[in-house]
């Protein structure tokens, strides 16, 4: 029995409709219908397709391991799944960083000092006018405080696939759950490292950035990922090195 047929039979046995599964997994109805027909084109690549199969099988109470094994067996040319077909390459050219132009800054400061001195000299040379002493001084109004509620900070936490509704979409959040030991590196969009080291089996870590997170996993089969609340599973097989990049719009669901 194919992967799609097995998931379709499990859904019908559970008495659930496609809309019920879509609401529970946050995977679009059209993508679910395609999966049940063994058409994974709308998933956005083999990496996301494996994550969708895992999420649907788990929701229906089916062991996802045999289904994922059959999925990989049907695609010998694409196994192990490569995230490079879905995510942006890890090597991205960065603009050259240049130091501040101190010459221009000093010239601007000198101009300001000269202008201030000229203004002070003109003020002292101007004779007082009648009525100026009795005129009360009026202070400038204070700048109005910006309206609207202050932005709330969100502390990242490792979440499963069903927690996507509570994840803000103005930033990217990646949660890692290790089932075995793996070296992991996580850096921000500016190249600042958030974590570099070993994750032991059973440990969980979560990271967030306003625009992009880059993740390198030395043992892809030992670390599962949850991106913006959607559980994607592992990014490869044991011993495989995975280089991934995520944005606030990931994962692409249909």
Draw up the topology in text.
Elements: H1 3-13, H2 18-25, H3 29-36, H4 46-59, H5 64-73, H6 102-125, E1 172-178, E2 182-188, E3 193-199, E4 204-209, E5 213-217, E6 223-227, E7 230-234, E8 242-246
Antiparallel strand pairs: 1-4, 1-6, 2-3, 2-5, 5-8, 6-7
Helix pairs in contact: 4-5
Brief overview, please?
This protein has helices spanning 3-13, 18-25, 29-36, 46-59, 64-73, 102-125, and strands spanning 172-178, 182-188, 193-199, 204-209, 213-217, 223-227, 230-234, 242-246. It is of the alpha+beta class and 254 residues long.
Helical content band: 25-40%
Uncertain segments are 79-93, 131-165
Element order: H for helix, E for strand: HHHHHHEEEEEEEE
**Spatial sequence of strands, sheet with the most strands:** 4-1-6-7
Structural class: alpha+beta
Residues in β-strands, percent: 15-25%
Q: Strand count, sense and closure of the main sheet?
A: 4 strands, antiparallel
Mean pLDDT: 76
Number of helices: 6
> What is the C-alpha radius of gyration, as a whole number of Å?
29 Å
**Number of β-strand runs:** 8
The rounded distance between the terminal residues' Cα atoms is: 25 Å
Indicate the overall shape.
elongated
């Amino acid at each position: 029995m194919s992967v799609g047929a097995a998931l379709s039979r499990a859904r019908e046995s559970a008495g659930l409709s496609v809309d019920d599964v879509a609401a529970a997994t946050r995977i679009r109805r059209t993508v679910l219908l395609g999966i049940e027909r063994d058409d994974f084109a709308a998933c956005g690549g083999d990496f996301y397709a494996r994550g969708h199969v895992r999420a649907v099988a788990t929701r229906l109470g089916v062991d996802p391991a045999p289904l994922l094994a059959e999925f990989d067996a049907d695609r010998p040319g694409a196994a192990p799944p490569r995230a490079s077909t879905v995510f942006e390459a890890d090597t991205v050219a960065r603009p050259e960083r240049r130091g501040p132009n101190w010459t221009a800054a000093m010239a601007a400061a000198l101009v300001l000092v000269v202008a201030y001195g000229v203004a002070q000299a003109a003020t002292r040379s101007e004779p007082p006018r009648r009525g100026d002493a009795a005129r009360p001084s009026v202070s400038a109004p204070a700048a109005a405080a910006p309206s609207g509620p202050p932005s709330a900070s969100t502390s990242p936490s490792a979440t499963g696939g069903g927690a996507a509704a509570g994840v803000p979409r103005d930033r990217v959040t990646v949660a890692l759950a290790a089932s075995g030991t793996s070296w992991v590196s996580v850096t921000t969009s500016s190249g600042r490292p958030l974590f570099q080291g070993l994750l032991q089996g059973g440990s969980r870590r979560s990271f967030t950035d306003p625009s992009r997170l880059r993740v390198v996993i030395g043992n892809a089969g030992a670390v599962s990922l949850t991106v913006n609340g959607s559980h994607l599973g592992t990014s490869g097989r044991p011993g495989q090195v995975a280089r991934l990049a995520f944005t606030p719009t990931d994962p692409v669901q249909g």
